Amino acid sequence: MKKFKLIITSLIVLFSVGIHSIEANQKVENFRLNDQLGNSHELFYYSDHEALVFLVQGNGCPIARNASVRFHELEEMYSGKKVKFFMLNSNLQDSKASILEEAASYDYKLPILMDDTQLIGEALEITRTGEVFIVDPKTWKVAYTGALDDRLSYENQKKEASQHFLKDALDQVIEGRAVALSSTDSLGCLINFPEQRNKAEHKLISYSQDIAPILIDNCTACHRKGGLGPWAMTDYNMVKGFSLMMREVIRTKRMPPWHADPSIGHFSNDRSLSSDEMKKLVHWIESGSPRGEGNDPLLEAEISESVWSNESELGPPDYVIEIPTTDIPATGVVDYKYHFVKNNIKEDIWVKATEIVPGDKAVLHHVITSFGEVNLKGPRKGRLNFRTMKGLRGYAPGITTNPFPDNSGTFLPSDVTFEFQVHYTPVGRKTVDSSKMGIWVLDEAPEHEIFTNSMINSRIKIPAGAKNHQEFDTMTVKKDSLLYSVLPHAHYRGKAMEVSVIYPDGEEEILLSVPNYDFNWQTSYDFKEPVFIPKGSKLKQINWWDNSKQNLANPDPSVDVYWGDQSFEEMLFGAFMMRHVKEDEVVSSQTSENYRASRED
Ligand code: HEC
User: Fold this and answer.
1) For range 387-406, the mean pLDDT
2) How many angstroms separate the Cα of 83 from the Cα of each of 52, 79, 178?
3) Which domain CATH number covers 40?
4) Ligand 1, pocket residues at CB < 6 Å
């Protein structure tokens, strides 16, 4: 029997020849992955730790299951130290659901990073589940790789380990000493990385037929001349020049800018790449971004030069409202500007879409657009009267400007005043901003009026240094409604968000999870199918903030932070775009007179 086992082991060793493996001292590049609970982890976020320890997990592997017990014990043992323990799952065959099941059966409490594209496991050259490795955040190098200890072997385990490879190495890393034994043979279940064996074929990925079309579909809307992106994907040479950076932003999920958990909800404006697209791009880049045969679709693509993103679908806007010109200094904090502009449209209209085009994208931070009647007296003299006030889509990078869905619109009476609340952030050079709003009009009165409900919790307090501070708010929906989109909002310390509905029977359903919130992008998440919210339900929004120094966007980790307009203050805010299922009054008979009458009671 013993002999038999030896043979198997040597067969496996033989089999492993030619398979690369993770190596001690190799550099680990940054990446971002979601765990089984939907939290997002970026490797470099943990730069304040003394060591990061990974166990390669895979469902159904006896060695990985067995090693996990000791791995959890070690985590417990080092809980007073700045050591972070992760599991990493790169298995082709495992899904979030099956990982959750395995975690429940084997009592895994650690974050299991789900490498569903295999791009991270492949680049690290991990080979087997059950393998462990330590990353030293001081150097981002692998300090140890191999077996956890010498207790386990195939179909056999000793009662006690006599060699504690991982623990010894970990102590040495923490003490800043050289690791004496930095690699051992690992054993466990081989992971199938089919693409690793296809490396020769990656050179044949066609720029012309595979790569450029992905870029045209997913990137050039912004990465074009005059677009939002900092560089234009004009041709092959530009793409090749930026290709390593493209690989980095794909691995860290910075680009395309889309921050929702892909396993929850479906959104019509989803900008994320599919798993196949990510793999194609990264494999093509890793094989040197070859030009190959064929034309250059980027040179031929009809990339819109219009300033209006709606123009291709809706034509030029019917009306353009100019937002007054503002001088922006080179540095400092510019107070919020409130611009009031009399509506110059001579008739009552139903708005199909609005879009704001920034005069200077670099400094225009956001615009909130409202309209209504101006108070002639009182403390809010000169500002809009709350009773008459309504909103239109504003501006922030990433905000959707799609036309209102489903035979719906917003009624805009002729003689109202627009209020543009504009926030500028100086960027080191003086400039002048003159932004404008385009309005597209519906030919006929729609059946439904769209409105926006706001979730506001202004009682928030985010303690200095807190890494994961949570607050929430709810609002009750009074009539049967359809929910079209949600824009959950926070400022620089915003870390994650979750939006759910609690039905009248108490059941809760998560509609949107944003595990990786980025203040630079104010995305409104547009549901593919509107969500029916029955009367009496509650909408709930949870925000998490990171007020620690590890949050690189944090303006000051040493202060408690409260609600406030400025980006160095914070918000728990959400804009919920909805309509009622049944209108009380016939929406199409809306006129200036009853618009006002309905708001004077
Ligand atoms: C909605 C607009 C938008 C889309 C779509 C978009 N980008 Fe970007 N991209 C930006 C903006 C704005 C920046 C600069 C700010 C930032 O880095 O977050 C940027 C930055 C980048 C950078 C980093 C440049 C640098 O040197 O820091 C790369 C690389 C990049 N994008 C690649 C891509 C790729 C590849 C795609 C498509 C798969 C894509 N982007 C899709 C807007 C976009």
Assistant:
1) 82
2) 6, 7, 17
3) 3.40.30.10
4) 218-219, 221-223, 228-230, 242, 245-246, 249, 254-257, 271, 273, 398, 520
